[in-house]
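re: that chain from earlier
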Amino acid sequence: MDEQTPSATGSADPGSPAAAPDEKVPPRLWLGLTAMALAAMMLGVDAMVVTVANPTISAELGATLTQLQWVTTGYMLAYAALLVAAGKVGDRYGHRKVFLAGIVGFVASSVLVGFSHNIEALVAWRVLQGMCGATLMPSALAILRLTFPPSKIKIAIGVFIGTFALSSAGGPFFGGLVVEYAGWRWAFFINVIGGAVTLLLASTLIRAVPPADAKRGLDLPGIALVAVSLATLVYGITEVPVSGWTGFVPLACFVVSAVLIVLLVLRERTTTEPLLPPRLFRSRTFVAGNLILLVSSGLMFSVWFYLSLFLQNVQGAGPLDTGLRLLPIPAAGIVVAPLSGLLNQKFGPRLPLALGLLLCVVSLFGLSRVGVDDGYASIWPFLVTLGMSMSFVVPVGTEAVVSSAPKRLAGVASGVGETMDSLGPALGVASLGTALTVVVQGDWEERLEAAGLPADTVAQARDGVQSVAQGVAPEGLGGTVARIAQETYTSGLHAILLGSVVVVLVFIPLIMLIKPTDPEAEDAADAAEASEGTAATAGEAAR
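^ sequence. v structure.
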């Protein structure tokens, strides 16, 4: 699988972007896509596997809800913060080198995660794992963009992103299976096998060519501004339940994050080698597609996170049972994935994106009606619609973002798209977790006072609000308190699900800003703009 460039005579090798629309794709390209899909599968599973393992991790390592959030948020935040930088590194040094190095780092960090013996170490190694994982996605997408012809690029990206999305959805089932029979640590140790196979296939099938941007520098200040601004924002959100929205720590974090974002914008508009080229953001499709990916991925992931706590801690399901109950999500996604690609190919991105977001609204509202004692029959239909929604939105939105950029910026564009897709879960888990905790804190007090419990029991129960925010009742206070804890968590879950419905409805109109893109036209426009810039520079030099 070659990162190809047109030959000096103007002809193109099979599979190059300049190939004729009806040209057949060589088998080597499809085999190379298999290696890319395996990497996507590992990333998807590791992003989601902790949703089912969280109660076991919390019990074994003594973690609070905020710490549990950081097991997920730390990984996602590190992953999101470095995606664009990883795309730039690939553009400069070659996407094959970056991809292979990322596989090695991802496997090594997975082993360290598995050996963690306290929650602080677990969070730290998950952050490192996210940093290594960030190198894989933009490099893989850029390789596909550079090797597959325009007539096949939608299919190739659909397969790749569909694999990532479905493996993410299947992560809870896989995690439940492993946690039930081998322990949560083996959910990470198993990456050694997957990583070895991926490394063998990728090193054999992907060939390197001199990178197009080898002489360009890296925007290190831009990289630092992106990473610190995002980390500060998420940390401020997670501190709201402790200090309140007007507390010093949250307010300071929000102010610092806003200042850093302003500095980032100024930096990118003035530097000669921007991390985030302003040209990309002139495209409405690029901007709207990224915003849709940010919101949809954040809400969908957060549903899995907090629904897993509901199933295990409130309804008493085990890890494997929880994974099985969540299985309709990937199952529905597998069925719908081909239809999503066909609709995108025939009608463009607007129709599948609209269907996906509307199905997301149905799922969130339906799950907000599920009570403590409701059976599985009241849950699974909305898991089916959630899986369908995921298959419509994620691959189509990602393809729209990547295809809206010229080939020269393929790595950066894919990095920005995946940043939104990964920053969404980090912000979603933190924001909805904060909202859930605030609702639980107020509701817990009211329910305890209304229950007519002894004063000493109420006093002890108040101290257990952090465990109630995970759906777990304080120990040793009797069945009445346990029931109140279950109802309190469920009420908080309902509140954040209904709030999520409102958010999706607000963002649906963005679909109208997205239009079908022509990769060849984008490349031609980029070449013309670059030519004008070169001519202007030469003219100034002559004067």
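Residues 4-21, 533-538 have pLDDT under 50 and may be disordered.
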